[in-house]
Design goal:
alpha/beta, TIM Barrel, 13 helices, about 450 residues, nine-stranded mixed β-sheet, single chain
């Protein structure tokens, strides 16, 4: 065979059929052949012997804050970090941009911001807030992957939480449109009341913040969202679960026929509340980090196959919003764009013998299928986009702040020794990152949701 534009030689390739040392041929940005010892040559050849080839990661939960708050992150810097970390497609959340993505006009503004600026492909979430139910149809026509709603305060005034009636009616409309609703599931009455009482009493430490967002607030909201999804038939996705008990609630609902999926984040898998008390504002997030026992229970659920996907919830902010001793005043969000695969490889594959097939499913295959990006995304298969990440499982590195490419580099993972390193990221057949360095100009596209297959 000849006429390929790229040949990747000799990697241990993770496909739906297993892990096998094969060559991958690429033509016109698409995988054209997968086989041992492919004949022919190509203008670009990569010797990948000793490396593992995974499908490029799909981070289904990022906040790039563009347009309007690019000083928080921005599409250029955020997608550089994502590319360096092995992510070839990210799904940008509707809030923290200004305006938030609540209608066709704001969708178009985000597309303009991404044009010529993104180093990887981007898909977009639309928002579900009080007052925009009549805009869900136009967002669906634009190609959003689904609608994001908060069941507690979002932290930004222009993206208010969905009251129960808005959420229920929004789910009914989303069902008619064939799109999922994603929810941030925490009980707002509980969390707001506990926070107000702590602040009024002058209790503003990290310990006080952790206590203001108890597990029961997550469990109750997850249960309520599942009830609404069961009533409406809507596909429900519960974001950033922090506890094994919440995962079991989702699994039990799915077992009785509810169309519900869930994600967790690397920070819930590798950090706990003791880390939060040491790190301070750098480790503030919502839901908060949990005790070590809860973290281990979450791992057990993930390794048992009951967590659908892992996403970063990359939620950066300027340094002045992440400093100080008042944990209620500090911005709640953890940057993680560059460390999704690195943390899964270290804490999962190296430390817990997670199969490489599970990394591929959690980090690429499941989000592609759930959010309508398959079969072009999320898999190494003939006919799919040639989105690949080559990783060195044996390499050990210490994450340094200067290695990070996001705007403010405030990662709580700095100083952590990691086993497993992203060596090369390939987007539609073109190397966009090599050993942590970005190659070439931005070449990412905004992609629209296709037919919505299930998980």
């Amino acid at each position: 065979m000849s006429g390929f534009e790229l040949l990747v030689r000799g990697a241990r390739v993770v496909t739906s059929a297993g892990v096998e040392a094969v060559d991958i041929a690429v033509q016109d940005g698409v995988i054209a052949a997968i086989s041992p010892g492919l004949e022919g040559s190509a203008p670009a050849e990569v010797d990948a012997r000793g490396l593992v080839a995974l499908p490029g990661a799909i981070d289904a939960h990022v906040h790039l804050d563009d347009p309007g708050r690019a000083h928080w992150e921005g599409i250029p810097s955020g997608t550089r970090a994502l590319a360096a970390g092995g992510t070839t497609c990210a799904i940008d959340m509707p809030l923290n941009a200004s305006p938030p993505t609540l209608d066709a006009a704001s969708f178009a503004a985000k597309v303009r911001a991404a044009s010529g600026a993104a180093h990887i492909d981007l898909a977009l979430w639309g928002g579900l807030v009080p007052g925009n139910l009549d805009r869900l149809d136009e967002l669906a026509a634009c190609g959003v992957v689904g609608f994001k709603a908060f069941m507690s305060t979002s932290g930004v005034a222009d993206f208010p939480p969905a009251d129960d009636l808005t959420l229920l009616e929004g789910m009914r409309r989303a069902f008619a449109l064939g799109l999922p609703v994603a929810v941030h599931a925490e009980n707002d009455t509980l969390t707001a009341s506990l926070a107000a009482a702590a602040v009024a009493a002058g209790r503003t430490t990290m310990r006080d913040y952790l206590d203001s967002r108890p597990v029961v607030a997550e469990l109750e909201a997850v249960g309520r969202a599942i009830t609404f999804a069961e009533e409406t038939g809507c596909a429900l996705h519960v974001v950033h679960l922090s506890t094994g008990r919440a995962v079991r609630s989702v699994a039990a609902a799915r077992a009785r026929g509810v169309d519900v999926s869930c994600e967790t984040c690397p920070h819930y898998l590798v950090l706990d509340e003791a880390d939060a008390e040491v790190l301070g504002a750098a480790a503030k997030c919502a839901p908060p980090l949990r005790p070590d026992a809860e973290r281990e229970e979450l791992w057990a659920e993930l390794l048992a196959g009951r967590v659908d996907l892992v996403a970063t919830d990359h939620s950066p902010a300027p340094p002045e919003l992440k400093h100080g001793d008042d944990m209620f005043a500090a911005w709640g969000g953890i940057p993680g764009a560059q460390t999704l695969l690195a943390l899964l490889l270290d804490a999962g594959v190296a430390s817990r013998r997670m199969p490489l097939s599970m990394v591929a499913r959690l980090g690429a295959g499941a989000p592609a299928r759930r959010f309508g990006l398959a079969p072009r995304k999320g898999t190494i298969a003939v006919g799919a986009d040639a989105d690949l990440v080559l990783v060195d499982l044996a390499a050990r590195t210490v994450l340094q702040r200067e290695d990070l490419l996001d705007r403010h580099r405030l990662s709580p993972f700095c100083g952590r020794e990691l086993q497993g390193r992203v060596a090369r990221t390939i987007l539609r057949g073109r190397t966009v990152a090599l050993d942590g360095r970005i190659l070439g100009p931005p070449g990412g596209r905004v992609i629209r949701r296709g037919a919505p297959p299930g998980l």
